[in-house]
Each structure stands twice: as C-alpha cells, then as structure tokens.
C-alpha cells in the first residue's frame, strides 16, 4: 500500500506508443491550433473592442473583416527590416526567436480529450494529447519562464533607453507574479495529488476545481494577465512613457514574432487555466448530466475550445474596460496582496487535505469556509483602498494646496482645485501722498476732529 494514499494513480502507459509519423501529425495539429486561434483572436479582439467603443472595426479584408490579421501578418513580413547601429546584432536577432519558441512548447502536454478515449487518425488509435509527463505542470512553468529571456534580451540588445526599461519592467513583473502563480498551482497539486495534466483533469470528474479552489483560480487569472503583459498590466510596452517598450527598435518579421508570442501565450495560459480549474475537456454540467456521450469521441475538443475562447474574451474585455495601472500599483498588487493571499490559501488547502486524509468529513466544508473568508478579506482590502483614496480626495478638496505660479520659472495658470494667493491691495493716490508727506491717515484716527477742536 502506498504511504501517500492521497496521491492519484498516474497511468501514463497510453503515451509514447504512437509511430513517429503520427507524433509529427499531432505536433503539426498543435502548432496549427495555436496559429489559427491567434489569427482568430486578433480579429476577435479588434471586433469586440470596436463594439465596446461603438466603432465598426475591421471590415475590409475578407468577409466581415475576418482576414484582417492575415493581412497584418503579410504587411509585417513585407516591411523593411531595420537593425539599429548600437544593437548587439546576434542577441538582437535571437531575442524574438527566444520569446516565440517557448510559447509553442507548453501546448504539448495540454489534453484535448480523455486519455482513455482513443480516437482514430488515419486508422491508428491514439489519445487526444501529444504527450504527458508526471511533472507536466513543472514543464509548463519552466518553458514559460524561458520565454521572458527573449523580452529581457530584446530590451538590452537594442542599445536604447526605452527598450531597456521595458525589459527590466517585464523581468520584475515576471518575478513578482510567478511566485503567486506557483502557489496557485501548488494548491491544485495538493488537491489532485498529481502534476500530470491528464490526471488533474480526471480528478475533476465530480467537481471542477474552480468550485473547490476559488481563490487559486482568482489568483491565477490575475497572474496570467500579468505574465502575458496584457492590459491593464502591459507596463513593459507602455506607450505613454516607453514609446513601445522592449520592442521599440524592432520592425518587420521580428516585431511580428513578439506579437505572435504574446497572443500564443494568451492561448497557452487560457488552456492551462481550463485544464487546472475548468474541468479541461469535460462538458459543462447541464450537458454532461443528460448526455452520456458528451465526453467521448471528438466532442471533448469542442468543450475545451469553447472554454479557451471564453477566457480569451476575458482578456479582450479587460483591455477594453480597465485603464493601465501605475507600475508601483502593479508591484504592490503582486508582492503585498497576491503573494500573501496565495501563501495563506496554500496553507489552508494543505491543512484541509491533511484532515481529509485523516478521514475527517468536514474537509470540503472547511475549504468552502476558508475560501469565503479569504474572498471577504480580499474584498475588504480592496474596499479599504478605495475608502482611503476617497478620504484623501475629500481632504484635498477641502484644503486646496498652495499654488505658486512661478514655481517652474515661468507663469502658469492654476489647475482645478488650486487658487492663486491673494494680491495685495494697491494704495490709493491720497494714501501715497500722505505716506510721502509723512501725514496721518484721514478720518479713521480722528485727526479732522482734533483740527476742528483747535480752530475752535
């Protein structure tokens, strides 16, 4: 008997038995799936953002503008390829390749269907997954971490200030958000008892982990936006202060590779989130309850693609809704909120798993209560932030700050909420004559009354 009864039984014997040509076919399918999804996502993003902003969006290339992303790719390939003089040429050329290749590698261990449901491809029975590993999730973390080197090297090798700042921002952002992401993964590992992607999906046959581990799902959704450098966390390519960020000095196909890596990473993190928290290839509850064949044959791939597209829509929705945050706010969220919450949640999940292994029946109840408490704490923290901001704004409105029109060396008009200091009153001509002659003021000090008395 295993000394760790909570570990899931991993049966990976169905992998590694395909002939070499079938492995190539499945690898080409994974590559094509990513490329087609990226082409669709670019058009979809432009259409959805245009709809949110009451615009038309792409409508020239292809029916309803559906070939716009393909036209953009052809345009980028035909543009002039420039290399700046101060760039380190070798690293400058390798950087977009280093950023793009790891983005495609994570899809190799993502299951598109159940491991025990083999489909027929050219007469051969095979699983709907390229391969699987006992440490598949660690493999995904590793290749995701390698991709950041492409951005850092691009910023350094360009020989320019703005790309260097963008590369450094991306490196700091990755470090702060991958810690919380790893803790969210660890919660799934503890509850599923495995790091194999196919086993994690199999363990969600009863309930999806978005229900059992809601805090882990929220943390991972926030960190995956930060990992992909997407709005509102797109500080490495912030146009407002960095022109274009790490890819400022890139053009033509090299720039296209960076954009491709960004969108492929969006698809990858969406697929990982689907696998870990949304039941993977499993059909949603209303369908799976009355249709027994929903999770057999080629149908699981449909449910998987729908879930990935919903998460991609979430990326687009964020970009069209939220403004870009400041860099200090980005770092504060990563280090002061996400990491402490993820660590506390991980300790709670480990405690509940230990109690469940000791045959306590209230494990799920404790998990739900703990999740609710942490969600309330997180909401209270956000509410406190807004309350403090409103209080500071009210104080500023009540006590307008002093304004010096000549502080910058030249006169400027006051901004809303600022007031010019009172201008001293210029003395009248009568007052100036009295001051010059040394006489006293009239009327106010009774001097006229004194003169009249002396005359009398």
Structural write-up:
The protein has 456 residues and is mainly alpha-helical. The protein has one domain (20-394). Helix content is 62%, strand content 1%. The protein is built from 16 helices and 2 strands. A two-stranded antiparallel sheet has the order 1-2. The longest helix is centred in the C-terminal third of the chain and has 36 residues, at 363-398. The model is unreliable at 1-6 and 442-456 (pLDDT under 50).
Primary descriptors:
single chain, 456 residues, mainly alpha, two-stranded antiparallel ribbon, 2 strands, 62% helix, transmembrane, EC 7.1.1.-, quinone, NADH dehydrogenase (quinone) (non-electrogenic) activity, transmembrane helix
Global mean pLDDT: 82
Content-based structural category: mainly alpha
Strand content: under 5%
> What string, H for helix and E for strand, traces the elements in order?
HHHEEHHHHHHHHHHHHH
Strand order of the largest sheet: 1-2
What is the makeup of the main sheet? 2 strands, antiparallel
Radius of gyration: 32 Å
- As for the number of domains, it is 1
N- to C-terminal distance: 128 Å
Q: What general outline do the C-alpha atoms trace?
A: globular
């Amino acid at each position: 008997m295993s000394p760790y009864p909570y570990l899931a039984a991993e049966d990976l014997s169905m992998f590694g038995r395909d002939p070499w040509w079938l492995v190539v076919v499945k690898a080409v399918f994974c590559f094509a799936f990513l490329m087609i999804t990226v082409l669709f996502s670019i058009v979809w993003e432009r259409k959805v953002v245009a709809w949110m902003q009451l615009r038309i969006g792409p409508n020239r290339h292809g029916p309803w503008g559906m070939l716009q992303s393909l036209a953009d790719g052809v345009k980028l390939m035909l543009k002039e390829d420039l290399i700046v003089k101060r760039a380190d040429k070798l690293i400058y050329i390798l950087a977009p390749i280093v950023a793009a290749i790891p983005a495609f590698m994570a899809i190799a261990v993502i299951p598109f269907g159940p491991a025990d449901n083999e489909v027929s491809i050219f007469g051969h029975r095979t699983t709907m997954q390229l391969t699987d590993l006992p440490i598949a999730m660690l493999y995904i973390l590793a290749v995701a971490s390698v991709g950041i080197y492409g951005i850092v090297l691009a910023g350094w090798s360009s020989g320019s200030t703005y790309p260097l700042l963008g590369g450094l921002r991306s490196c700091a952002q990755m470090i702060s958000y991958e810690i919380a992401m790893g803790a969210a993964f660890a919660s799934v590992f503890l509850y599923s008892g495995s790091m194999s992607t196919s086993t994690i999906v199999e363990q969600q046959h009863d309930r999806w982990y978005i229900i059992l581990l809601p805090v882990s799902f929220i943390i991972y959704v926030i960190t995956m936006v930060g990992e992909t450098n997407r709005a509102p966390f797109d500080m490495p390519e912030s146009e407002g202060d960095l022109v274009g960020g790490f890819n400022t000095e890139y053009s033509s196909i090299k720039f296209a590779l960076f954009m491709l890596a960004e969108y492929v990473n969006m698809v990858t993190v969406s697929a990982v989130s689907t696998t870990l928290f949304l039941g993977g290839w499993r059909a949603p509850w209303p369908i799976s309850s009355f249709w027994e064949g929903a999770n057999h044959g080629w149908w699981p791939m449909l449910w998987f693609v729908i879930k990935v597209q919903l998460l991609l829509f979430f990326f687009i929705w964020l970009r069209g809704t939220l403004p870009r945050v400041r860099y200090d706010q980005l770092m504060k969220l990563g280090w002061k909120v996400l990491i402490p919450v993820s660590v506390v949640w991980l300790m709670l999940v480990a405690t509940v798993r230990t109690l469940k292994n000791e045959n306590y029946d209230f494990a799920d109840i404790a998990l739900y209560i703990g999740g609710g408490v942490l969600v309330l704490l997180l909401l209270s923290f956000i509410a406190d932030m807004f309350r403090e901001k409103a209080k500071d704004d009210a104080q500023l409105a009540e006590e307008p700050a002093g304004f010096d029109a000549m502080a910058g060396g030249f006169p400027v008009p006051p901004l809303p909420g600022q007031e010019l200091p009172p201008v001293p009153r210029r003395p009248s001509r009568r007052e100036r004559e009295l001051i010059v002659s040394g006489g006293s003021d009239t009327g106010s000090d009774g001097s006229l009354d004194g003169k009249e008395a002396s005359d009398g």
